[in-house]
Amino acid sequence: MHRREPKRILMLSIVNPMVERNGASTVTRGLLKLLALPPLQAQVECVPVRAEPVRWHRLAQARGLLRSSLSNLPAKPAFLYSREFREKAISRIRSERYDLVILNGADLLWISEYLPPSIPRILVAHNIEHQVFDAQIQHIRLRRPLEDLLRAERQRLKEYELNGMRETGRVIFLSHEDAAYARLQCPGLRAITMPPVFDYEPPIRPSRKPGATLEIGLLGNFGWWPNRLAVRWFAQKVLPYVKHPVRLNLFGRSAGRKWTGDPRVREHGAIERMSQVWECCDFMICPAFSTGGVCVKLAEAVYNRMPALATHRAARGLPIDEDPALVFLDEPGEWIEFLNSAAPRQLAERRVSEKIGARFAIEPQREALQKFVNDAISPSLAAAAGA
Asked: pTM for this structure?
């Protein structure tokens, strides 16, 4: 009996999932796990654009802006442009056989022109990047000339991103809202929505009675501007007006540097085990304000059945139903009123329903994702099967 050779996939990635701890790397680890499961059992070689996260982030951003002014690339993808990475990708494709290339992140669409058209490809759209960029502009106070410059840059990014999606032809989205938007902009686009999935078993959370001080958790990479905005919003507009004893626990790189003077803020920094978060906290908060993509930290809290207080924007595009363990409020006054009531202690004793939490497990996404990948690799066979 002839043994079928496993599919070989080259993933070109905006993150190194083996060393980075952020939303994109979390999503990437889940995707790699899904591709390795039977029946597909693909062999995936993941080549990150950088082995380690850039250390001098603002300097690299300035370099990206300069490169953008001298090329056709918008500033955001120019930030990740690397001749070394380009040569490495070309070398791998010339020396190895691959059935598929996965572009893990729209900022890498620029490398498509260096890939042979004979190899099918799929884009993983972690966000609608031009929408995220637009949200960033709205939250920065700018003088008119700079604002006009950034809005022109946003238009360049939009054209780059949507043209890249059209040329790639197949996209994995994390949010059904992002998928719907892209289909309107790119008629005929083949797309699938796969929410963030997590490659570990969630611990069983015992019934919890909060202590005298409520332990509130906020998880994220605080080097990323939406997470810095979330901390600033809570620390400036909510926390000063909370009269009940609370402590805000920040988990993640660069956590809360500006809030160390407040004794109610505790910085844990990067953590080794996610269970440290769930063990420490009574409930999580997710004050998200960005458009595009999904709030991975809310998805992970729900997967672990942790109660959460969040803005409605945090649940954007996620398969989350109404649940007593999930409270959604948007205005600072609503958060203050909630945290000054008896409701937070009641919230701490709840658990998200198992049904909702299971939507972010690996297995429910396996069949659809693997079919999407197989259809990209063998479109003629897929067409025949559907006939």
From this structure: 0.90
